[in-house]
Amino acid sequence: MKPLTVLVLLLTCAACADFPELDGREQPNVRWAKYPKLIPVQDILGPPVDPVNEAAEVEEDLTARAEALAQKAEALQNAQTN
Q1: How far apart are CA 3 and CA 9, in angstroms?
Q2: Counts of helices then strands in the chain (DSSP H, E)
Q3: CB proximity list for 9: less than 8 A, separation 6 or greater
Q4: Short-list 60, 39, 58, CA closest to 49
Q5: How far apart are alpha carbons 77 and 70 in whole angstroms?
Q6: Cβ-proximal residues to 1 (8 Å cutoff; 6+ apart), any chain
Q7: Does position 82 have pLDDT exceeding 80, yes or no?
Q8: pTM surpassing 0.70?
Q9: d(Cα 43, Cα 1) in Å, to the nearest integer?
Q10: CA–CA separation, 64 vs 70, rounded Å?
């Protein structure tokens, strides 16, 4: 048999397994508790990010880092060695 067929057969057999009953295991206050209030995802994530503004900030940061590295490289090339 092919591995995929065996996997499907095993998963099918596992789906037919009996699991112990869970009724009566939870506390009464949990059984009758209200569901939590759902909040829209937009409220959780906050305002959307402006990709143009964010790209400009990243570009400025990368430019500054590149200039700093270029200055470091120039200083190392001009350094006197014994």
Answers
A1: 10
A2: 4, 0
A3: 1
A4: 58
A5: 11
A6: 9
A7: no
A8: no
A9: 51
A10: 10
DSSP string over 1-47: --HHHHHHHHHHHHHT------TT-S-HHHHTPPPPPP--HHHHH-S
Q: What does the alpha-carbon distance between residue 59 and residue 65 come to, in Å, rounded to a whole number?
A: 10
Distance CA 46, CA 79 (A): 50
User: Tokens 């789906």 map to which residue?
Assistant: 15
* 43: its two tokens: 């409220």
What does the block give as tokens for 4?
Answer: 């995929």
- The answer to whether residue 74 scores a pLDDT higher than 90 is yes
Q: What is the C-alpha to C-alpha distance for residues 35 and 27, in angstroms, rounded to an integer?
A: 15
CA distance 9 to 75: 68
Distance from C-alpha of 67 to C-alpha of 70, rounded to nearest angstrom: 5
**Alpha-carbon span 55 to 67, nearest angstrom:** 18
